[in-house]
Structure formats: C-alpha cells, structure tokens
Amino acid sequence: MVEIVKLNEAISVTSEETAVKSRLISKKHVLAEAPFINTARVYVALSYEYSGAGRRSTDFEPLKPREVRLYDAPEKKLIHWLWYYSETGTQYLNYFASDAPISRVESVCIEALPITGYVPSSARNVSGNSGTIDATRWQAICLFLDITAVSGTTPTLDVALEGLDPQSNSWFTLYAFPQKTAVGKDNRSIGIGFETGKILPPSIRVAWTIGGTTPSFTFSVGMIAEHRR
Q1: Confidence of residue 197 (pLDDT cuts 50, 70, 90)
Q2: What is the value of pTM for the model shown?
Q3: b/e for 199-217, b at 16 or more Cβ within 10 A?
Q4: Which of 3-7, 48-52, 181-185 has the lowest mean pLDDT?
Q5: Domains in the chain, please, with CATH?
Q6: Count of Cβ atoms closer than 10 Å to residue 223 Cβ
C-alpha cells in the first residue's frame, strides 16, 4: 500500500547547487514520476542519511516528461529524502513512497493537474477555448469551474468540455455546465464510472461562450485527471 503521496510538487530551482529537499519520507521504496505536463527534465537524487541535513547519497538522475523511476533503498537503509531541481523553468514531480513494494500500476492512477496552461483565472469578455489537451492517458477527469467576478448587462457564460472527432476533425460537446450568470462554483466528474459516463477521446478542450452587453467574467477551470489503468 502506498503510504506517502505527493502530487505536482513544483520545482523552480534550476541547478544542482540550489536543489531542494522533499518532506521527510523514511520509506524503503519510492516511485518518482515526471508528469506529462512538464516541458523539460527534472533531476532527482536520494538521501539515505537522516542526520546531517539529509546529505545526498546518490547522483542526480534525469526524468523526462512522462518518465517513471522506482527507487529501492539498500539493505538496512531507508530513503529519507529526495533532492530535486529542474532543467529550466517551473516543472513538477509526483512521488509515492511505501515500506512495501510498489508498482506504477497500483500507485500512479490519480494526477492533480495545475491550471497553468489550461484555463487559469482571468477576466474574459469574449468566447474562447483552452486549446487542445492531450487526454490519451486519461479515463476520467473532474472539472472545477470557479467564477469570482461578473459584470455587464444580462451577462451569460456557457462552459463545456469538448472532444475531437478523429474522422471529421470537428469538436463535439461531451458535457456542458448549466449556463452561468453570477459568481459561483460548479464541478463535474466525466468519464467511465461517473454520472457523466462518457468515454474520453484522446484530444479534449474546455470551451466557453460569453454573451450579453459589455459582459465580463473572471473565472478558471481546474482539472484532476484519472489515468487509464
């Protein structure tokens, strides 16, 4: 059983000299994953030393986006800390730790995605979309619609999750939130096993339509994705 889970640990330092240390782990096995939202490599090293500020015990090893690596502590030792830095810019790291053997199949099934690059909070007054999102590895997602400010005369906001038809190359609605006219929150899980039991196509996007006279909506759409097993 996985006992420690850390999702989307943000890494903004970009050199071995400035590498940062994880929270205390102290487990026999650690699985590290560079999520597919990354655009560059992250570098990970281990510490088997509890004292001495967790001095690094291994060299840094690169993890490319989507790459997974399983670490096992030597006999009579534990993995107390991870050290990491990114190749460039802000990248992310998922890690899973346990005293029992772990595998990617049983542990890497949920990935919380930051909204950066999808639909971050912003004031919008025209219709638009998030751009194409690669959902090849997902079997379900949860969408979080958060509207924090509204202005204009009879403003309306329609937000939908769309899927790309590979035959016609056209976008079709998979789910549409009820029309919004005021500040508020809404969420919906979409995929096999949920109320909105749609099969997710490989390419999806979030689209919004804004109507009314001089309308403005400040909103974001966040996502949590469940991997295909």
Answers
A1: low
A2: 0.53
A3: ebbebbbbbbebebeebbb
A4: 3-7
A5: 4-108 (2.60.120), 113-227 (2.60.120.1110)
A6: 23
